[in-house]
Amino acid sequence: MKLKTKYILFVSALHLVFLLLSYLTLKDKALLFILSEVVILFSVLLSIWLYRQLIEPIEQIKAGINAIQDKDFNVRLLTTGKNEVDELIRVYNRMMDALREERTRQEAQHFFLEKLIATSPTGIVILDFNEELKQMNPKASSLMAGNEAQFMAFISSLKAGESRVWRMGNSRSYKIQKSHFMDRGFPRLFVMIEELTAEISQAEKNTYSKVIRMMAHEVNNTIGPVNSIINLALSNEGLWSRPAVEPVKNALSVAVERNQNLNVFMRNFADLVKLTPAKKHLLDLRRIVENVANFLQPMAAQHEVVFRSQLGAEPFLINADAQQMEQVLLNVTKNAIEAIGSGGRVSFILDAEARSLSITDNGKGLSNSSNEQLFSPFFSTKKDGQGIGLTLVKEILQYHGFDFSLKSEEAEQSGGDLKTSFMIFFS
Fold first, then answer.
1. pLDDT band at 348 (very low <50, low <70, confident <90, very high)
2. pLDDT at residue 334 greater than cutoff 80
3. CB-side neighbour CA atoms (13 Å) of 293
4. Is the domain 281-425 a CATH 3.40.190.10 member?
5. 123-127 and 186-195 beta bridge pairing
6. Which of 98, 128, 186, 383 is most exposed, with the fewest beta carbons within 10 Å of its own?
C-alpha cells in the first residue's frame, strides 16, 4: 500500500471518529455541535494542506527517479519553498547536471573512438567474452579477406599482452598484438593487426645488401690477386718439370677452379642486390610459360617429371619485363621439379578470369616451419641451397606489383597426396 493511501485512510478514519464522538456527546447542544463540526472541517482542510505539503514533493522526487531510470538526465526539479525538501531537490539537480555532462562527454569520446577505429591504418579486431569475433574495422576486414580462419587460429594461439610477427607463407608479414580492456567489470580482448611487408622487406634488403657488398668486395679483392699469382706460377713450365711436383700443380689448378666457383657464387648474390630496373611492355604470358617448360624439359625428364599445361586459347597479356618474368618462372619450376624428386608432375594453369598463374607440383609439400621462412633471404630447405632463388622471385614480383602465394594442401581425390601451388596474381 502506498504512503499517500495510508495517509488518506488514516485522516479519513480519524475525522470519522471525531464526527461520531461529537454527534454522540453534543447532539443535545446544537451550538457546541456546530462549533465542533467547524473545528473538524478546519482539521480536514489542514490535513489536505499537509497532504500537499508532504506528498507532492515526494511525487516530484518520484518523477525524478523515473527520469533516472529512463536515463533522461535533462529533467530538473523545481524548488518547493520548504528547506528540507529543497535541499534534497538541489542535490538531485546537481547530480543530474553531473550525469548529463558525463554522458555527453562519454558520447563524444565514444564517437571519437569509433571514428578513430574505423579510419585507423591498423587492423583492429574486437572479441566477445567467449573470445569469438565480435567486430572489426575496415582495415582488418581488408587484411583478413579470404584468410579469416588462418587469422583467427593464429590469434587464438596468442596470450593477452603478447605480440608476434606472423608470416602467412607468402610475401606478407603481419605484426599481431593481443590486449584486453574492461567491459562492465569483465575483461574483453582485442587484437591489433599491422601489415609489415613493405617495412620488413626493405629492412631485410638493406641489411643483406650491405652484407653482400662487403662480402663481394672482400672476395674480389682476395680472389683476383690470388688467381693472378697461381696462374703466373702455373704458366712457368720450369717449376713443373719434375714429376714429384705434379700433385702440387693439380692442387693449384683445383684452387683456381674453386676460386672461379666462388666468383660465380658471389655474382649470384650480387644479381639479387643489383636487380636491374624492369623494362615493362605488354607480353603474352603463355609464350613465356612454354619457353620455360621447353627449357627445363631435359631436367624434368631426368627426374621423370611430366609437365601439364592449361594455358587457354586466347593470349594472356601482362605488363612486365620478359626476362625477369622468365627468371621467376624458371626458379619456381626448378624448385617444383626438385621438390618432387622423382616421378611426378608439374602443372601450369592460367586463369583468365582470376588473372592468375598457378604452378603446382605433387611433391612432398611444405612444413609449417619452413613455409613461414621460404621468402627470407639465405633460407633454403636444400642441402646446398643458397637461399636466394625465392628471394629473387619475391623482389621481382613485388617490383612489378604482382601478389603471390605459396602453400601446400591435400589434393582432391588423391588419396591423401599433397599438392604445392605457387600462385601469381596479375593486376
1. very high
2. yes
3. 19
4. no
5. antiparallel
6. 383
Residue 262 CA: distances (Å) to CA of 78, 223, 383 = 95, 9, 17
Q: How far apart are the first and last CA of the chain?
A: 78
Q: Which of 222, 214, 322 is nearest to 270 (CA)?
A: 214
Note the CATH number of domain 120-195.
3.30.450.20
Burial class (CB in 10 A: 0-12, 13-18, 19+), 240: middle
pTM (two decimals): 0.49
Structure letter (DSSP) for residue 303: T
Joined grid coordinates for residue 62: 518520484
Residue 388, exposed/middle/buried by CB under 10 A (0-12, 13-18, 19+)? Answer: buried
Of the candidates 403, 402, 355, the one whose C-alpha atom is nearest the C-alpha of residue 172 is 403
Average pLDDT value over all residues in the chain? 78
3-state secondary structure of 112: helix
Would you state the cell numbers that stand for residue 8, as one nine-digit string? 488518506
Average pLDDT over residues 332-361: 89
Cα torsion 68, 109, 164, 371: sign: positive
Q: Which of 122-131, 240-249, 300-309, 378-387 has the lowest mean pLDDT?
A: 378-387
Longest CA–CA span in the chain (Å) reads 170
Residue with cell 575483461: 187
Q: Where are the domains of the chain?
A: 3-105, 120-195, 201-273, 281-425
% of the chain beyond a pLDDT of 70: 78
What is the structure's pLDDT at 413? Answer: 46
